[in-house]
Write a structure and sequence with these properties.
Helix content of chain A: 10-25%
Number of strands of chain A: 40
Shape of chain A: globular
Structural class of chain B: alpha+beta
Strand order of the largest sheet of chain B: 2-1-5-4-3
Oligomer: heterodimer
Structural class of chain A: mainly beta
Shape of chain B: rod-shaped
Largest sheet of chain B: 5 strands, antiparallel
Largest interface: A-B, 42 and 49 residues
Strand content of chain A: 35-45%
Radius of gyration of chain B: 52 Å
Helix content of chain B: 55-70%
Number of helices of chain A: 6
Chain lengths: 592, 569
């Protein structure tokens, strides 16, 4: 008896302790109501992982009419799940239809008209453009007039028995469907000089996010799209394949296993192309290149490579500057004085005041300058700070007027002369005489602005077609020392009246222009891959010129209060920050 | 060919199983023994068991509470999200031409994109906008889903509920599994609402909640396990505080019982255990005092007996001389007086014998008896003793039969004492033998010699086999002493046997006579392990009573276990 008493009470005590501890722990749980301030950064957002919307297709209903069947098929083919399993239900069993992983797409803009005939259906509409199987979008307005053959199956239901030829391996999609079902991503190829990489935007259908790295690498191995073929160089030898189950991404390391054909290619070149292509995906932070299962490392690098290893292939790379020093900005001041911004103050480059230059353009190495004389019929060129620019080219046509010249990365000066409604393109290579470029696709148009991209392969222009001044992007193909400037694509088609442009970086243009909704001329940021426009800054009127440099604020020349001013955004990181005019002058120019 | 292999394998398996069973049984037995012996183990084990139950119950309860709280919060947040999303979607759908499939698709696409972009890249939720199944004819599409969520993530029961919902304020919701293309499914909360002609579903993945719950659960399990172990450790420590002094007390009591009367416990503090130690020590002190007193008392008594015996000797000698004189002259007295002189002479002899026995036994009591051992043949002693008692036996009409071994039975003994024992036994047998035959048996083995004296008299009643060795004990107090027995003979015999390190044991059964057996080690001082002779004569079949008698037989020497009277079994 005496032994049990304390034992029982001890056990009670233990239970009480357990309860007490639990209650005490529970009581400690409290949301903090104070504490020190912790700094944080905005999480990085990759456009690739922006949410997207998928269409849920329905199989054909009972007793649907012929037009319903065709409409249903067209709609269902916009759903890429399960290899178009639902869309196939609209087809008779033997109908041929083989949309590949990267199908050819015909894009239409307004609702199609569907007309029922006895055993076929005629679909008419307006074509906006096409996406070829290599992913290149080509704006190509045309008429759509396709005929679908239909027949009743054993259950008395209409099914499509024959597709129009154009749709045998592709599909007909509305603009909204394309926007919804496709994403644009860049492939990277080398510029002819083999030093910098040129982005080649392609349209990829949104099928399978985990498969995207493999999709991208396969596309990159397949070579540039028709638009850039020959203008760029791929370091992948022909017929190089991706081996295994595709790209394996584990802990941020993407392992790309190429077939042995790749032995013939340059390891650094292939690695750079792959790294740049894959770094668009947020899940990839490092790359491991394998050839036939064996890990290969480019000279001087480890088994895995990071994007910074290939930073030197960036066309947007600006020369390193001392801390606190910003990129040089030149402008044309009063009476066309050639001036440079020191701090925020314009100062004459030539104190004697004899150097007069309109619309200056600075070479990428920041040594040479080119510009126009006051009337614009002569292009002047000189070395900054050494001698006054001398005329290099007079307009041969009496009414010929030059627009602002532009430099490419090899130091070639590109000059464009408008005469009447036509234009002529000249180049002046280093230490050579100016020559006319005969293969110039925009020669029938009046060109308002022209800028060569920093990679030297792409060229952006604003050309007048009828009343509209539209933004276009072409490519420069050098053959036997002679350039061909062709294959212009429309960009930012919402901008109806563009005035001036500049390359902000390899992926974005900044364009002064107006849209139908916004008649004022304001700067827009235009992704060259065809994404949505974005207005830069707010306020400001009567903008005339624009310039940009990677890592530096966008500068615009503006006419305000009867004076030409140079303005920049109050806060360059805030897209809607106000324009802040800080110096007098016009036509500001960064190098390039 | 196969059978032997199979047999061998079977045998091996059986052997293995047997070993396993043995080992496990051994372990179980040891564990059980440990369990029975250790209070500490029992307390710790029961604390462990109970605290496991308590902690488990508490943990489950806590988990449930946390889960409920978490899901409640999620549902509230979800409801707000859905409301906000609905208003955005309604704005996007204003002026929609519900008859135009292209417009519907475009508008719903815009709405879905708007809603999805509010979800953020981390995928706070997925949105599914569905056209009602009956509208499929008009729109030719089922609806729109964001990202890679599959349509089957919206359970049919929820769709039915949304379709039935009468008011546009109804927000049916359910928990379900969210399925994705190329991604494992996960648990989710699905909320539905009417969006004009369409159905809007918000699918909230519960991965975050699941992660939180898993974390909380693993934390709880860890804390619970730690708590249980801690409680067990506490119980162990606490019990130890009680058990260790108890164990010390037990040891002290054991030592006290073993005769170390000076054993005491340490008293520390003033708690219960200190009181126990104090009272234990008091008890031990009292016990020691009493035992010392008793020892002193018995010492005094022994001394007294010894002194009395000595003191009686001198007058007795005088009386003896006078009595002898009277006895010699008895012929001269008249017959009655002569008879008195004879009587006086007889009783004086008895008195002398009694006095001698008293002196002898007091010598034993005082521990003054010494063993004067020398190697003798037991057979000679037997023959001599039988010779001495033959006359008495003849008188009683008993015949003594001897069973002696052929070879000498040498043993290191004090022959005077052994002869005295023998004489005592023989006299005793003659006295109680009722004139029947008396059998004396001698036997020897490597370590011991034994002799047994068997009579066929009245025998002993149950319990008497022990009492015969008591001082002045009589089987029948009324019976007259016909021979000169003093009542101390068997006691002295037993003392003598014990002095040799031997045993003297008795067996008897009413009507079947009795037998006394003396067993002695061959070498003086050696320990006796068994006897070459059975205690129960071989001519008596073993009966339960007899067996009981044997069991009752005292251990002849101190604490040594009774060797079961060798050979009886």
């Amino acid at each position: 008896m005496s032994g049990r008493g304390p034992m029982v009470s001890k056990r009670h005590a233990l239970v009480a302790v357990a309860l007490g501890v639990t209650v005490a722990l529970a009581g400690c749980v409290n949301v903090p109501t104070g504490g020190r301030v912790v700094s944080g950064t905005a999480p990085e957002r990759a456009p690739v992982d922006d949410p997207y919307v998928r269409l849920i297709p329905v199989p054909p209903g009972r007793n649907w009419s012929k037009s319903q069947i065709v409409q249903g098929f067209l709609t269902a083919s916009a759903a890429f799940d399960d290899g178009h399993a639902v869309a196939r239900k609209y087809l008779a069993p033997k109908t041929k239809w083989e949309p590949t992983n990267r199908p050819g797409i015909t894009v239409y803009d307004r609702p199609l008209t569907i007309a029922e005939l006895t055993d076929r259906v005629e679909v008419t509409g307006r074509q906006l453009g096409t996406i070829s199987t290599d992913g290149q979008y080509l704006a190509y307005p045309d008429k759509i007039d396709e005929v679908f053959q239909l027949a009743k199956d054993a259950h008395g239901q209409w099914r499509i028995t024959a597709l129009p030829n154009q749709l045998l391996t592709g599909m007909l999609l509305g603009q909204r469907d394309v926007e919804r079902a496709f994403r644009t991503l860049n492939l990277y190829y080398f510029a002819p000089d083999g030093k910098v990489l040129v982005p080649n935007p392609i349209y990829l259908p949104l099928m399978n996010r985990p498969e995207l790295p493999s999709q991208l690498v396969r596309a990159a191995l397949g070579g540039p799209t028709s638009w850039l073929t020959k203008a760029v160089r791929s370091d992948f030898p022909p017929d190089t394949k991706l081996l295994g189950k595709g790209v394996d991404v584990t802990d941020g390391v993407a392992t790309v296993n190429l077939s042995k054909e790749a032995m013939g290619g340059s390891l650094s070149g292939m690695s750079a192309q792959l790294m740049w292509t894959l770094r668009q995906l947020p899940e990839v932070t490092r790359l491991r290149l394998q050839i036939d299962g064996e890990t290969m490392s480019p000279p001087g690098m480890g088994a895995t490579q990071s994007p910074s290893d290939w930073r030197h292939n960036d066309a947007d790379k600006v020369p390193p500057r001392e801390a606190g020093q910003s990129a040089p900005v030149y402008l044309s001041g009063d009476d066309g004085q050639f001036e440079q911004l020191k701090g925020d103050l314009p100062q004459r480059v030539d104190p004697s005041g004899r150097t007069r230059l309109h619309r200056p353009a600075i070479s990428l190495d920041e040594k040479s300058v080119a510009g126009l004389n006051e009337s614009g019929d002569t292009v002047l060129q000189g070395d900054i700070g050494r001698d006054a620019p001398r005329p290099v080219l007079h307009a041969p046509d009496p009414g010929g007027r030059f627009i602002a010249p532009t430099w490419d990365r090899s130091g070639t000066l590109w000059m464009l002369e408008n005469y009447g409604d036509r234009s002529r393109l000249w180049i002046k290579e280093k230490n050579k005489e100016p020559v006319e470029v005969h293969e110039w696709d925009l020669s029938p148009n009046h060109v308002m602005a022209l800028r060569v991209a920093r990679d030297g392969v792409r060229i952006a222009a604003i050309a007048k077609t009828g009343e509209r001044a539209q933004l276009q992007m072409g490519r420069i193909l050098w053959e036997f020392g002679v350039p061909t400037v062709a294959q212009f694509l429309f960009l930012g088609s919402e901008i109806v009246n563009a005035k001036d442009l500049a390359w902000r970086n390899a992926d974005e243009l900044v364009v002064l222009g107006s849209t139908q909704r916004q008649p004022n001329v304001v700067p827009y940021q235009v992704p060259v891959s065809g994404g949505p426009l974005r207005v830069i800054g707010s306020g400001g009127t009567d903008m005339t010129s624009i310039t940009a440099l990677p890592g530096s604020p966008v500068l615009v020349g503006m006419r305000a209060e009867n004076a030409d001013k140079i303005c920049r955004q109050h806060d360059e990181n805030d897209p809607i920050s106000e324009w802040d005019c800080f110096a007098k002058g016009q036509a500001p120019a960064y190098p390039g | 060919m196969k059978a032997p292999v199979w047999q061998a394998a079977k045998a091996r398996i059986r052997r293995g199983l047997g070993t396993l069973r043995r080992v496990s049984r051994g372990v179980t037995r040891r564990a059980y023994a440990r369990w029975r012996r250790s209070i500490q183990l029992r307390v710790v084990a029961s604390t462990l068991a109970i605290s496991v139950i308590v902690v488990a119950v508490l943990g489950v309860f806590l988990m449930q509470q946390i889960t409920t709280a978490l899901l409640d919060a999620k549902e509230k947040a979800a409801a707000l999200q859905v409301e906000e999303g609905l208003s955005v979607a309604q704005r996007d759908l204003t002026g929609i031409d519900t008859e135009d499939p292209t417009d519907v698709r475009a508008r719903l696409g815009t709405a879905a994109t708007d809603l999805a972009s509010r979800s953020g890249p981390s995928g706070l939720y997925q949105v599914v906008i569905l056209t009602s199944p009956s509208d499929a004819d008009v729109y030719q599409f089922g609806g729109l889903a964001t990202n890679d969520v599959q349509l089957r993530s919206v359970p049919a029961r929820l769709r039915a509920q949304v379709a039935r919902a009468s008011s546009s304020l109804d927000r049916p919701r359910t928990y379900g599994q969210l399925y994705y293309n190329n991604r494992p499914s996960e648990a989710g909360l699905i909320v539905g609402a009417h969006l004009g002609r369409f159905e809007l579903y918000y699918l909230f993945p519960l991965a975050q909640e699941q992660q939180t719950l898993t974390f909380v659960q693993s934390t709880l399990v860890g804390v619970g396990a730690a708590l249980v172990l801690l409680l067990a450790a506490i119980a162990s420590v606490v019990t130890r505080q009680v058990v260790v002094p108890t164990r010390l007390a037990a040891q002290a009591a054991e030592r006290l019982a073993a005769g170390r009367l000076e054993e005491r416990m340490k008293v520390r503090g003033e708690d219960d255990l200190a009181r126990l130690a104090t009272s234990f020590n008091d008890m031990a002190a009292n016990l020691q005092e009493k035992i010392l007193q008793l020892e002193e008392l018995s010492q005094v008594q022994r001394q007294f007996v010894s002194d009395v015996s000595h003191e009686l000797r001198t007058p007795l000698t005088t009386i003896r001389i006078a009595a002898d004189l009277l006895y010699e002259r008895r012929e001269e007295f008249d017959p009655a007086v002569g008879r008195s002189a004879e009587l006086l002479q007889n009783q004086l002899e008895r008195f002398e014998a009694l006095l001698a026995d008293l002196l002898e036994i007091s010598r034993h009591d005082a521990g003054a008896a010494t063993l004067d051992a020398e190697s003798v043949d037991i057979r000679d002693l037997v023959l001599r003793a039988v010779d001495d008692t033959e006359r008495l036996a003849d008188r009683k009409g008993s015949r003594v039969q001897l069973h002696l071994p052929g070879e000498p039975c040498m043993a290191e003994v004090d022959w005077r004492r052994v002869e005295r024992i023998l004489r005592n036994l023989l006299v005793n047998a003659v006295e109680h033998g009722e004139g029947e035959e008396i059998v004396v048996t001698v036997a020897a083995d490597r370590d011991a010699v034994a002799l047994a004296v068997r009579d066929h008299g009245v025998g002993l009643r149950p319990g008497e086999a022990q009492m015969v060795f008591d001082r002045f004990w009589r089987a029948d107090p009324a019976r007259a002493r016909t021979t000169g027995g003093t009542g101390l003979g068997l006691s002295i015999a037993r003392e003598d046997a014990q002095l040799h390190g031997g045993w003297l044991q008795a067996w008897g059964e009413p009507g079947r006579g009795s037998q006394f057996r003396l067993s002695l080690p061959r070498v003086a001082g050696a320990e006796l392990r068994g006897s070459p002779l059975p205690l129960v004569p071989p001519d008596v079949e073993l009966s339960p009573i007899a067996f009981a008698e044997i069991e009752l037989a005292p251990h002849p020497t101190g604490g040594n276990p009774a060797p079961d009277a060798g050979g009886v079994r």
